[in-house]
Design a protein that fits this description.
Length: about 260
């Protein structure tokens, strides 16, 4: 039986220079196929609000939605670590966050939870990790705050914003975060954060220097209505879905994905 990926596995992979591969899944069928292709982390993301529910943002997704889909994914995962998103307004205080994180882990069978935000989440991350909850932070473009950001835009091009993002990443690490997702971040900033941190970075539109990559499955197989710049269609060239997932895994590990056209400079 395959050995389960853990937060220690991810940190060890960073130290060895081995790329971490992550994909989203929201149901049993895709979860089984993804797990069989040796993906390291399956993300039950609030992106389900857009690709499964048809909304124009992740904001409408609830904790119950995440739990429902995580419960569908979990029984199929023998190796991959299951990461579940804390959705919009489900972690406005440390106590609320830990209560909802407990539900994601107990009812949804997640192994680690992810939340968006920097400085404002330091106390929350510290509280959760103090009580044994593994946490992945999320910096850069944070989709739950898309209305505040004014749209899906690259974050960190301005010097002051870039400095704040690096400071936030270091503070989240100090608070106990086990990993950090960097979304839509210029490659030079993502590289600087990755080199400064001891915990792994997982990029999505953040360049190939990150310790790993994550994509939304529906983007990766080319069935999203609006595919973002940072993705690629791995289902082309006559591949079936398992072959497409395998090609994505190989491309991340040999650092051929992301290519320059999937990066922001």
């Amino acid at each position: 039986m395959a050995k389960r990926v853990t937060v220690k596995t991810l940190r060890d992979m960073k130290q060895k220079g081995e790329k971490i591969v992550s994909l989203t899944a929201y149901d049993a069928s895709f979860a089984r196929v993804i797990d069989e292709q040796d993906v390291d982390v399956i993300l039950v993301g609030d992106s389900l609000g857009m690709v499964m529910q048809g909304h124009d943002s992740t904001v409408p997704v609830s904790v119950d939605d995440i739990i429902y889909h995580a419960k569908s994914v979990a029984p199929q995962c023998k190796r991959a670590m299951i990461m579940a998103d804390l959705p919009f307004m489900s972690y406005t205080s440390p106590n609320q966050a830990i209560s909802n994180a407990a539900r994601l882990m107990q009812e949804g069978q997640a192994h680690i939870v992810k939340l968006e935000g920097g400085e404002a989440q330091i106390d929350t991350v510290r509280h959760m990790t103090h009580h044994g909850v593994p946490v992945c932070a999320h910096l850069g473009l944070t989709p739950q705050t898309v209305h505040k950001l004014g749209g899906y835009r690259v974050q960190g091009r301005e010097d002051d914003v870039a400095k704040q993002m690096l400071d936030d990443a270091l503070a989240l690490q100090d608070a106990g975060a086990d990993a950090v997702v960097l979304e839509c971040v210029p490659v030079d900033l993502a590289e600087k954060i990755t080199k400064e941190l001891e915990i792994p970075t997982i990029g999505i539109g953040a360049g190939r220097v990150c310790d790993g990559q994550v994509l939304v499955l529906q983007d990766m197989i080319g069935i999203s209505s609006l595919a973002p710049k940072f993705t690629a269609n791995f289902l082309k060239d006559g591949r079936n879905i398992p072959e497409a997932i395998s090609a994505y895994v190989a491309a991340v590990r040999d650092v051929s994905f992301p290519a320059d056209e999937q990066c922001f400079f």
